[in-house]
Amino acid sequence: MYHWNRQCYASSRGTDTTRERSMNRIGYGAMQLAGPNVWGLPADPEAARRVLRLAVELGVTFFDTANAYGPRTVNRLIGEALRPFPDDVIIGNKVGAGRGEDGSWIITDHPDVVRQQVYDALADLGTEVSELTYLRLGGDIPAPPSGVPLEDSLGVLVELRERGLVRRIGLSGASPEMLARAQAMTPIAAVQNRFNLLDRSGVQVLADCEAQDVLFVPYFPLASGRLTTYEELTAPARRLGVTPAQVALAWLLRRSPAVVVIPGTSNPEHLRANVAAAEVAESLTAAEVTRLTDLVDESEVALDQPHQTTIDAHVAMAGSHVSATS
User: Fold this and answer.
1) Residues paired with residue 192 on neighbouring β-strands, in sequence order
2) Which end of the chain, N or C, is more open, meaning fewer C-beta atoms within 10 Å of its C-beta?
3) Does residue 236 have a cis peptide bond before it, meaning omega lies within 30 degrees of 0?
4) Other beta carbons less than 10 A from residue 290's beta carbon
5) Is residue 69 flagged as an active site residue?
6) Catalytic-labelled residue, pool 9, 28, 69, 134
7) Closest Cα to residue 106, out of 324, 303, 312, 326?
8) Greatest Cα-to-Cα distance within the chain, rounded to the nearest angstrom
């Protein structure tokens, strides 16, 4: 359980806009609920809604989504399936990114666009306030800068928080320098960066989050299923009678207490297995955790140099080209 008792803010309405929250450390990433290549609706929208409801039944309290998923279709599915949202459910939504007509993933961080995306997300989810809104940045991808200063786009979220439309602000794809600049403006509650067993490119940002009491949410925690063949994974999986994927998720939980993982799936049985990884984490020995950690020399990684498994996962998504537009 992660206890999220960071800052409370007074909004223009004169009330505190955050409160202490607790969340289970196995969350749910909703990207796979969209249609093929994260575009449009899935073939069976009601099956997607059932998976979301099952996640809540299994104790998932943290859901990750974005306007760009669909685009907007996944947020609508979440709203249709879960609203009115249970008191303990937190939806983390990303703005500042979108999709091109060809399906490409683009940075859309102009302040006017960011503001509209927040409004769109509230409408699609069917809620009056966002518990957590991330600003998507380009600090962890080899993309040209958009030309929009971080302070301008982040300032929109600060404004909307003061109006009571956003409770907590996060960053996605932040470099250490970007996190520091953002923290100079406003407290940051969560950072979502690449990080998994083989791709440790976000390790410095993770360290900064640990030091600053910021939630760290690794995306691509399983590199879309590409982390299953290493003996360091398969040996503890055999010993415990679980899957290598469960061990990979369990290692993330053991790697840092700041971590909440967000594996995604549209398969109910995979969802059950992902949630069960929390119990696997408790069963890994210290020696097994050390062997898994030692798979990568974290002193040699660089934020803008993703592991090949991450590159392969990106390529598997249509329009994996990332560009910037203002």
Assistant:
1) 172, 217
2) N
3) no
4) 12
5) yes
6) 69
7) 324
8) 56
Q: Which residues contact 159 (CB under 8 A, 6 or more apart)?
A: none
- The three-state DSSP-derived secondary structure of the chain is CEEECCCCCECCCCCECCCCEEECCECEECHHHCCHHHECCCCCHHHHHHHHHHHHHCCCCEEEEECCCECCHHHHHHHHHHCCCCCCCEEEEEECEEECCCCCEEEECCHHHHHHHHHHHHHHHCCCCEEEEEEECCCCCCCCCCCCCHHHHHHHHHHHHHCCCEEEEEEECCCHHHHHHHHHHCCCCEEEEECCCCCCCCHHHHHHHHHHCCEEEEECCCHHHCCCCCHHHHHHHHHHCCCHHHHHHHHHHHHCCCECECCCCCCHHHHHHHHHHHHHHHHCCHHHHHHHHCCCCHHHCCCCCCCHHHHHHHHCCCCCCEEEEC
Tens-digit pLDDT profile for residues 182-211? 999 999 999 999 999 999 999 999 999 999
Amino acid at 301: V
* Closest to 186 (Cα-Cα) out of 137, 145, 218, 151: 151
Q: Which two tokens stand for residue 150?
A: 């971080």
pTM for the structure as a whole: 0.90
Task: Using the structure block, give the residue that is written with the tokens 């009491």.
Answer: 213
